[in-house]
Please model this.
Amino acid sequence: MKIVVSAGGSFGHINPALAIIRKFQEKESDLEVLYIGTHNRMEKEIIPKENIPYEEIEIYGFTKNFRQNFKNLKCIRHATRKCLQIMKDFQPDVVIGVGGYVTYPVLKAAHQQHIKIFLHEQNSIPGKSNRVLAKYADLIGVTFQHSIPYFKTKGRIIYTGHP
Model:
């Protein structure tokens, strides 16, 4: 089995992603994992130290700075194209998004390639990326049951607790 995992920006996203990877490693003897993260945040240092193959993409969160946001739109397009190529080369069975703006181009590319998507939300109130990406997800896991109403994708949400 091959999985792509993407999460970034903070330990609040990275640690659950690592927990999910470890659970897959326990269950799947032939597991291949590829992690896609940012080029300049903490996951770039943490994930390779865990002996997990890492691909970086350039992307930034949106701010109130119009110029930066315009630059970020270009980065999103470029990152999505790079993720499309990564998906074609790696051919994952499933892509797992665990939050943070880095997941947007990853899951969008997976959706365009018709790859199964699992989205996990560990916060009480879902982040912007996860709310936008929920429409692409085949299944959404939530840490808190009271997070379920924030998603408009009824029937594809499960309560998992915190990985």
Summary: The mean pLDDT is 91. The longest helix spans residues 66-90. The beta strands are 2-6, 32-38, 54-57, 94-97, 116-121, 139-142, 157-159.
